[in-house]
Amino acid sequence: MPHNMKxxxxxxxxxxxxxxxxxxxxxxxxxxxxxxxxxxxxxxxFLSDLARQIELDATFDFIAVRSYGTQKESAGEVQLxxxxxTPLEDKNVVLVEDILDTGLTFSFLRKLLLARKxxxxxFAALLDKPSRRQMPVQADYxxxxxxxxxxxxxxxxxxxxxxxxxxxxxxxxxR
Length: 175
Ligand code: 5GP
Prior knowledge:
Elements: E1 5-9, H1 11-28, E2 33-40, H2 44-51, E3 57-69, E4 74-82, E5 92-100, H3 104-114, E6 120-128, E7 141-145, E8 151-152, E9 168-171
Parallel strand pairs: 2-3, 2-5, 5-6, 6-7
Antiparallel strand pairs: 1-9, 3-4, 8-9
Helix pairs in contact: 1-2
The structure holds guanosine-5'-monophosphate.
The site of guanosine-5'-monophosphate has 19 residues, from strand 5, helix 3 and strand 8.
């Protein structure tokens, strides 16, 4: 692990949180099918582990957005760069995100996906930084609430690096 990293959530803690969310989704949609929509690229590891903890008929799709700003701060503008390919009308959709921060991305995606008229739309976020919220949104399923620190690993990047770290780490450039 690089010297300027400190583990915030270990791989074992992450696995426990993912399993808990998988059980909640399995229970909430018992007897039904779900479409898991992962937000690229950050949610790809979370989605692949979560999917294996969901005991339901499940399919996957992916969506990608870009938010403008510096590498660590969103500037408040979200743009769609890849849409889902599955029709969502009358389906149970679970949007799967790595982290809920200001809420701008989720607000944008919620509006976009609700326009497709799903039967239900739920939102699973592995991490939640409630202190940073700018929009009045919350996730239906949350793995962990974390303090206002910039984290990398388990899908989360800094300038596209560190997504493959198995633990979630606080990253600081100056240590
Ligand atoms: P929001 O739109 O809620 O502010 O931010 C959501 C997106 O911002 C996440 O999907 C993620 O890409 C990015 N983000 C927010 N906080 C962090 C963080 O601590 N680390 C990393 N790597 N990305 C973050």
